[in-house]
TrEMBL record:
This is Translin-associated factor X-interacting protein 1. It comes from the Eukaryota. GO terms for cellular component: cytoplasm. The lineage of its organism: Eukaryota, Metazoa, Chordata, Craniata, Vertebrata. Residues 87-196 form the Translin-associated factor X-interacting protein 1 N-terminal domain. Keywords: Coiled coil. It comes from Galemys pyrenaicus (Iberian desman). The keyword Lyase does not apply.
Length: 692
């Protein structure tokens, strides 16, 4: 049955005893593409005793009768042997699988795949159809696996992002808790301050109440005094009237008058007294609460003084409150700065190292203590590290026999484009310096200027031949890259790598030549010496825009001391001498240092005048205005040269002054970098600058 599954299937359909008697070949089954009930046994709805009749068409009447009879068969039929064997095989394979692993579902498909392959291989008739079905499912499964495989990194990235977000949330919550605690503390302090101010307000209110009470008492006292005064005046008038009556009664002339007349006069007098008393009572009733003007004015003045004092105290109180708030803010900022400085101090204490003992290098550097003391003279720790690295690098450079080629990439300089190993020519430092001087000598005398890197390589080809030119190019490049403290090598390296333009080197040479020429012209006797006063005069005439302290720095670099005599002689030729290794004197180094510092200050003023960030853009018109503002003495030719270098456009292609300049835009950072590479210097003082 395993070798011929078609025969086994037919036997299961025909039942026992009928296999081979009425069996047709499978030609009819293979020729038909349509699945029908008469071709395969739809077990278990048919019994094993039924047969497949030969030469029966699916559409015939006999076929319909048999199909109808199959539908009424009982369901007590046994499974075919081939089916049982496949089920047992599948069950055993599934039991052998380890379903606890991650790939359990993938492995679970393998037994089913094998069972399906058995069907495909054993049922030859349906093999193409089943194979296409299997291939379709396999392609779909492969696509799903590939999609799962592509989603795995996204899942890991999602987990990582989730962790980062959780950490940020925790950090933000911690920061919020800290801010809340600080705000609560500030709230408590402000509440205490409010309580204190409320207490002061209550004290002031109580003081005002006391003043009002004392004012009322004084008012009552003065009112009583007024009433007593009026009563006293009335009593005095009464006594005066009585005295007059007594004097009249005692007068001899009174006795001689008519008693009726006297009685009538007394009656009229008493009526006048009654009327006057009524008027007095009316006035007392009407004006009993009236304060005298003098007392009123006095109390009004006192009240006004108290009000002014209260207003002054209230203004002082508000000012104190504002000062208190400012002090609180200052206190908080001071606390933050203190915490920051404290953390920085702890970090510095943790990471700082003790000052190195540079005398240990005396035994390591070739030449011993004498050469090391000469190399270390006047240098700080950073410069001493550079010197030590150069000494170590020089030894390593001499040990190399070959340099690896840098290839032909676009980022590689044209004179270094080579594949493979390049021979190290191992020249001395003096030989490299001498070669660089020869290069500059020929470059300055050249009429037709070519690219500097191309000129450098062409010079090496002319000097050493095409075969050794590349070796010398790599050798010179490695040497100038190593010896950064050497003046001539560092300048040559910066220009060769495009960090500076040649005009910077030629300008510095012109300045030195001009100084030497001025000093030589003053030395009329050609003795080679000048006085310090003459040196100061030459420096001020050569550099009219330098400040006094800059001139003094140059004089000190030349050997002048503040307490020395200006008539002291100076060997001025020694100020411009270079040693065999290309090292300049301290005077020339100070000149170059001031040249670079003045350029930095000039570009810094330009950036401030533009008022833009480095990432912003500026047009040509705005750049021209800024240059003329910081340096009004710029002539048109020099100004156009600066603008051409800033925007990287030839001078002949620059537009005329006007609206067209606004169309040319350049990044501020790029413009400043381009100007820094060029020879940019001040041509005059600004209007607000004091004269030197």
């Amino acid at each position: 049955a395993w070798r011929n599954p078609d025969s086994a299937l037919t036997a299961s359909l025909l039942g026992p005893g009928r296999y081979g008697d009425e069996l047709y070949t499978t030609t009819a089954l293979q020729a038909s593409y349509q699945f029908s009930v008469g071709d395969l046994s739809p077990w278990p709805t048919h019994t094993s005793g039924q047969t497949i009749l030969c030469n029966r068409k699916p559409c015939s009447e006999d076929y319909r009768k048999r199909a109808g009879s199959w539908q009424h068969q009982p369901l007590n039929t046994a499974k075919p042997r081939y089916l049982e064997q496949l089920e047992n095989y599948l069950r055993k394979e599934l039991l052998l699988l380890d379903l606890g692993k991650d790939s359990a579902q993938e492995l679970r498909l393998q037994p089913y795949r094998e069972i399906f392959e058995f069907f495909i291989e054993d049922f030859k008739t349906y093999k193409p159809l089943l194979s296409s079905i299997k291939n379709a499912y396999e392609v779909m499964l492969a696509q799903q696996r590939e999609k799962i495989r592509t989603l795995e990194p996204l899942k890991a990235k999602l987990v990582t992002m989730n962790e980062d977000c959780n950490e940020r949330i925790l950090a933000m919550r911690a920061e919020e808790r800290y801010e809340i605690s600080m705000l609560k503390k500030e709230k408590m302090n402000l509440l205490k301050l409010i309580d204190k101010k409320n207490e002061e307000k209550t004290a002031l209110q109580s003081e005002v109440a006391k003043l009002r009470k004392s004012l009322a008492q004084e008012y009552l006292h003065y009112l009583t005094e007024r009433d007593a005064r009026k009563i006293l005046i009335a009593d005095l008038n009464e006594l005066r009237y009585q005295r007059e009556d007594m004097s009249l009664a005692q007068s001899p002339s009174v006795w001689g008058e008519d008693p009726m007349k006297l009685t009538l006069a007394l009656k009229m007098t008493r009526q006048d007294l009654t009327r006057t008393q009524m008027e007095l009572n009316t006035m007392k009733a009407n004006f009993g609460d009236v304060v005298p003007r003098r007392d009123f004015e006095m109390q009004e003045k006192t009240n006004k003084d108290l009000q002014e004092q209260l207003d002054s105290l209230r203004a002082d109180y508000e000012e104190v409150c504002k000062e208190h708030e400012i002090l609180l803010q200052l206190h908080m900022s001071t606390l933050k700065e203190r915490d920051q400085f404290y953390s920085e101090l702890q970090e510095i204490q943790r990471t700082s190292t003790p000052r190195p003992d540079w005398t240990k290098c005396e035994d390591v550097v070739s030449g011993g203590p004498e050469r090391w003391s000469m190399l270390a003279e006047g240098k700080n720790s950073d410069q001493l590290v550079d010197v030590l690295l150069e000494e170590i690098g020089e030894g390593l450079l001499r040990e190399k026999d070959f340099f690896p080629g840098l290839g032909y990439e676009e980022s590689t300089p044209s004179f270094l484009r080579f594949e493979g190993n390049v021979t190290n020519m191992k020249p001395t430092k003096k030989a490299v310096v001498s070669l660089i001087k020869d290069i500059w000598k020929e470059r300055l005398s050249e009429e037709q200027r070519e690219n500097f890197s191309d000129f450098f390589y062409n010079f090496l080809e002319r000097r050493f031949g095409p075969g050794d030119a590349m070796a010398w190019a790599y050798t010179v490049f490695e040497n100038i890259k190593l010896f950064r403290t050497n003046d001539i090598m560092s300048q040559f390296y910066a220009i060769l790598m495009g960090k500076n333009r040649e005009i910077v080197y030629t300008r510095q040479k012109e300045i030195i030549a001009q100084l030497l020429k001025e000093m030589t012209s003053i030395d009329s006797q050609n003795e080679g010496v000048i006085t310090m006063e003459q040196l100061s005069t030459v420096l001020k005439s050569t550099f009219p825009f330098k400040k006094e302290e800059k001139i003094q720095e140059l004089m000190e670099a030349g050997g002048w001391q503040p307490d020395s005599n200006n008539t002291e002689l100076l060997d001025y030729r020694s100020l411009f001498v270079e040693d065999e290794e290309g090292q300049s004197t301290f005077f020339v180094k100070k000149l170059r240092e001031q040249y670079l510092n003045e350029k930095e200050e000039y570009l810094h003023e330009l950036k401030q005048e533009l008022g833009l960030e480095l990432r912003e853009d500026v047009n040509l018109f705005r750049l021209r205005e800024a240059l003329l503002t910081i340096d009004p003495s710029l002539d048109k030719q020099t100004l156009n040269s600066y603008l051409s270098q800033a925007v990287q456009i030839p001078v002949t292609e620059l537009p005329e002054e006007g609206e067209k300049e606004k169309d040319i835009v350049v990044n501020v950072k790029t413009a400043l970098e381009q100007l820094h590479m060029a020879d940019v210097r001040r041509m005059g003082l600004r209007e607000q600058d004091p004269a030197s």
